[in-house]
Amino acid sequence: MASHIVGYPRMGPKRELKFALESFWDGKSSAEDLKKVAADLRASIWKQMADAGIKYIPSNTFSYYDQVLDATATLGAVPPRYGWTGGEIGFDTYFSMARGNATVPAMEMTKWFDTNYHFIVPELGPEVKFTYASHKAVEEYKEAKALGVETVPVLIGPVSYLLLSKPAKGVEKTFSLLSLLPKVLAVYKEVIADLKAAGATWIQFDEPTLVLDLDAHKLQAFTDAYAELAPVLSGLNVLIETYFADIPAETYKTLTSLNGVTAYGFDLVRGTQTIDLIKGGFPSGKYLFAGVVDGRNIWANDLAGSLSTLHALEGIVGKDKLVVSTSCSLLHTAVDLVNETKLDDEIKSWLAFAAQKVVEVNALAHALAGHKNEAFFFANTAAQASRKSSPRVTNEAVQKAAAALKGSDHRRATNVSARLDAQQKKLNLPILPTTTIGSFPQTPELRRVRREFKAGKISEEEYVTSIKEEIRKVVELQEELDIDVLVHGEPERNDMVEYFGEQLSGFAFTVNGWVQSYGSRCVKPPIIYGDVSRPKPMTVFWSSAAQSMTKRPMKGMLTGPVTILNWSFVRNDQPRSETTYQIALAIKDEVEDLEKAGINVIQIDEAALREGLPLRKSEQAHYLDWAVHAFRITNVGVQDTTQIHTHMCYSNFNDIIHSIIDMDADVITIENSRSDEKLLSVFREGVKYGAGIGPGVYDIHSPRIPPTEEIADRINKMLAVLEKNILWVNPDCGLKTRKYTEVKPALTNMVAAAKLIRNELAK
């Protein structure tokens, strides 16, 4: 019985690629150095899968930044502002598109479906001249072959590529991106011909947009595309891979009727209803790649349950046509449990990272073929039972408190307009108040202090003194820059979700459980294994210390319950909403303690609220109902004079704007500049927003420093659709990934722009 992996993490078990990228970007190493690290990582990944017995091993899933950007490079779809003049796309052009450079901004970055991974959004229009400009797919296939590993080259499918794109600046928003399909397919034909000539026998097209609610026109594009590619695909086995949700019934019919396709891959973890469609009819003679091992979470597979599912599918498609697979790429999970030396044995027995999931896939394939590893299955059954019965998972008091929430919608008693008036009397802020989102640069020295404290090399007193000194520097800098509402810079936090998880019960932590978020940015999601509560205050000490250093308002900085949920590896033994309500109660306690400590502005970030929106429209209202409710729970008990902020970033917010309003925050800061001010269109279309709002005025994920005039122009565009008395001026997101040499001039220009517009308004 055959086995397959959709994709694999790229960063390496110890984030080797991250450090190689950052060294290259800082000019400390060469392009050849970076390529050598990448080649070593790829070789290690392919060998690991081959040694584990995986038959269908993917290639071209490795990326220096993002797989959609790789597709853009392959197609030569480089926006003109990057000055590319043709030929093979090199690092300069590639990374300029991803990160911007000194003279031009980066391309838009947004969330990959409902994950915390980000992709670079292609900018297309009728004038784009598609050309085969990156031979990465065939080069990686040949590289693996030279190592003795036969792989399945993976390409972003042509229709999904176009559906994930946007019209370039200056192109009508009504422009049909699918009208570019013939031009795109011409390049795909060249890529496929290259792969065939190199000896490839299988090719995988990732078409994840097939899980969305697609109209007839979009479905027809899939039919047309694969009919057009059929002649060049002749002689190849073709796998269409889908993931993250169920396939709609009409889409299933279209997919299983595509010309020249040999195999279909389905996510049977998040798409359990797809099994019913398969049982209702599967094309004879085709392969089913059954994604029964979860690629998005870290819990050990229920091998007995998966084997039962596979036996049922085997009866439908035939033993020789069933392939055991992951539900999606393992990019979204941590790399290897072997590297976790500090997790206790009980919790560790409940887990499986990417390396362990490869073993699970192969074990299931062997069991299906009649070669079951009884000891492996027995240990798995014991671990499943241990997790269900462990007393550390359940806290009855927490469950009762969460259950009691369902009798109220938890709204503050006074409307937002009256609250803003009360807050202004207390805070006395100018028109267009300036602020930042929370974090300031994380310097090597700061990271060293945290690392040494965790390792016991410095005392708690030394640690507190160092962190307070860092806070003082950040406060003094903001006062020097004349920012109106300050932040303490979060020097005590490596990661905002990890920081809170470390102080909440029901969470466990890894040493090397890193997951790529974008580019070189990695996060280490905590593991929510049990009921959640807050044993003691988490941020009050640092926020109070920061407020004592200034007479200006100091924001208390918290992460919201939905974001903690979506940026963690979440328990899968109860509804996500139940876990969120538990977290909301913990954050509520913290909010009220901050208020008692004299913090008058409290920010509760919900950066990931939009990210968690289900992909199917029929499921979205239910999610938004409990997600927004959870946010309101956190701050329902504060006084009118306490100003509640929230922050959101790097998603498409326009379709949930009414739910954002329903959150009833006093002020929302929200990413806007990198997405070409897409957010403002919702206000141009007549949506009325009465609370404070700060659409970001510059992109913090690029090293580029925006001039004052550019920021002022953005503020004026905002004033065209928003009232001056509700508008705030702030960056897109937190500043932790930037350097002070970038942050100081950018914030200087931001404050200067705000003052410039204030003066114009005063006239």
Commentary on this structure:
The chain is globular and about 75 Å long. Helix 22 packs parallel to helix 23. It is of the alpha/beta class and 763 residues long. The strands form 6 sheets. It has an 8-stranded parallel beta sheet. It has a 5-stranded parallel beta sheet with strand order 17-18-19-20-21. Strands 3-4 form a two-stranded antiparallel ribbon. The protein starts with a strand and ends with a helix. Helix content is 42%, strand content 12%. The longest helix is centred in the C-terminal third of the chain and has 23 residues.
| Rg (CA only) | 26 Å
**Unreliable residue runs:** none
Largest sheet: 8 strands, parallel
Structural class: alpha/beta
Report the mean per-residue pLDDT as an integer.
95
Helix run count: 27
Topology:
Elements: E1 2-4, H1 16-25, H2 31-52, E2 57-59, H3 67-74, H4 91-99, E3 109-111, E4 118-120, E5 123-124, H5 136-146, E6 151-156, H6 158-163, E7 166-167, H7 181-198, E8 202-206, H8 216-233, E9 237-241, H9 249-255, E10 263-267, H10 274-280, E11 287-293, H11 303-317, E12 322-326, H12 345-349, H13 354-368, H14 374-389, H15 396-403, H16 416-427, H17 444-454, H18 460-481, H19 496-501, E13 505-508, E14 515-518, E15 521-523, E16 527-533, H20 540-547, E17 555-559, H21 561-566, H22 576-596, E18 601-605, H23 620-635, E19 643-648, H24 657-662, E20 667-670, H25 680-684, E21 692-695, H26 708-719, H27 740-762
Parallel strand pairs: 1-12, 2-6, 5-7, 6-8, 8-9, 9-10, 10-11, 11-12, 17-18, 18-19, 19-20, 20-21
Antiparallel strand pairs: 3-4, 13-16, 14-15
Helix pairs in contact: 1-2, 5-7, 7-8, 11-13, 15-22, 17-18, 22-23, 26-27
